[in-house]
Amino acid sequence: xxxxxxRIPRFKTEDxxxxxxxxxxxxxxxxxxxxxxxxxxxxxxxxRSISLRLPEDMxxxxxxxxxxxxxxxxSLAKIYLAREIRHEGRSNARSRLAAAxxx
Length: 103
Description:
The chain is an all-alpha fold. The chain is 52% helix and 0% strand. The protein has one domain. The chain has helices at 14-23, 56-69, 73-102.
């Protein structure tokens, strides 16, 4: 027998709602026996435009590499940034793990 779902309170602000969901599980508020899998095939991550100043030779090299790979240079820059961010995240995680072991 499934337990009864609780009522979701009304929120005055988005911050109140965010705080509430940070402390509560949605599983307590939505009946899982009525849940079903959905697909969002056209969903894309939100993007924000930025201005980035690069040395001229770096921009030329980026455009040359992008041309060789047949991709827009902005896309190649995003790939390089994402790769470095992942690398730094793994590196920092290893450092924290090593520090915890020696503590």
